[in-house]
Amino acid sequence: MSEEILVGIDLGSHAVRIAVGQRVPSSEERERLHVVGAVSIPSEGISRGTVSSLEDAVACVSRALEQAERLTGVSIERAWVGISGTHVLSHPSRGVVGVARQDGEIREADVERAMEAARTVAMPANHEILHVIPRSFTVDGQRGVKDPVGMNGIRLEVDALIIQGLGSQIRNMTKCLYRTGLDVEDLVFSPLATAEAVVTGKQKEIGVCVVNVGASMTQLAVFEEGDVLHTAVLPIGSAHITSDLAIGLRTSLEVAEQVKIRHGSALPDAIQRKEEIDLAECGAPESEFVGRRFVVDIIEARVQELFEKMDGELRKVERSGMLPAGVILTGGGAKLEGMVEAAKKALRLPVSFGTPIGVSSVVPDVGDPGMSTAIGLVLWGNSITGSSPSEGWKGLFSKVRGATQVPGGILKWFKSLKP
């Protein structure tokens, strides 16, 4: 059974989340994905998507794996792992090659050479390529070709999006995972995995922005015509709201977190000025009353800053206020009351709350938006390893092996470190 399961691991600053999926037969003559287990434990040794304490991170991931194995009754040996952080950068690239065959027919080997040409870009020092995502091809000047294999031409060009991360951070995360005895199927940029879980192919086609509001970071990915148009990681998350409240209310982070969860909102106009909160009910050592409107004003300031930065990312690709499918908000931070309404106002776009779709499960945690990335990683692995890969650039990944492989010789090197 261990060969039939797919595992996704999301290493977050607030929690380590593991989703375990299994392919099961369906009435539509193809397999569907059934999530048999979902685990979330408080994160240790991981900050802003990077490893801050190797020993603590190894112990934390080991506990999560042990809990997932007890829950599902299967041994977890391999996993698809999400990677994020402000060190992950994305930028467009282009690769141009001549078609090898004399009759001009384009083969998969030509596509692979074009992708390799796109990889040979000037990178910042110590960075490694995580993904080369083909967005479209050009054959002898004909633009907008999605799959050139089988077509005829003498010049093949690919427009690609290069996603790369700091090599030392990638190695630290990979080392952490191998120290637990786990094999890494692949490292996947987290916003891409999140999109697998919360948006449909139609939404990606007409234009959508997926936003995962985490504890210390907010990740976004913009899709149009089925392609990845832009990705970004913003250094603001729900933990910053908690810190703002702790400072504004002159209280502890634990009390501020409870105030945010129980009484927080991103819409101050909906709050009566006379409403008061007793901090003792949120864990404070003694009774102290504060105005709820004051609390919500503090939250709104940070939320507005976050949405302004999101809009700035959309402006970079000229999509500010111009995505027909709008914005899908997911992640634990998106559960704050009024986030959807505040986003609609700030971004001037339709906004909806995103929870994992496309999977079946009896596990209650699967509906939690915080599990979106972990479940997306399972779906990503399913589309890569399944018998019928999804269309578009995800399908090309399975043809052009190496496009999503863990960079360089990192996997081979770290396998020697396994206990």
What is the compact description of this entry?
With 419 residues, this protein is of the alpha/beta class. 34% of the residues lie in helices and 29% in strands.
CATH hierarchy class name of the domain at 89-164: Alpha Beta
Rounded average pLDDT:
88
By DSSP (H or I, 4+ residues per run), the number of helices equals 12
- Overall radius of gyration: 22 Å
Q: What share of the residues lie within helices?
A: 25-40%
Strand order across the largest sheet? 11-6-1-2-3-19
Structural class: alpha/beta
Q: What is the CA-CA span between the terminal residues?
A: 24 Å
Largest sheet: 6 strands, mixed
CATH architecture of the domain at 89-164: 2-Layer Sandwich
Shape: globular
> pLDDT under 50 segments (min length 5)?
387-409
Number of DSSP E strands: 19
* Percentage of β-strand residues: 25-35%
CATH topology of the domain at 89-164, by name, is Dna Ligase, domain 1
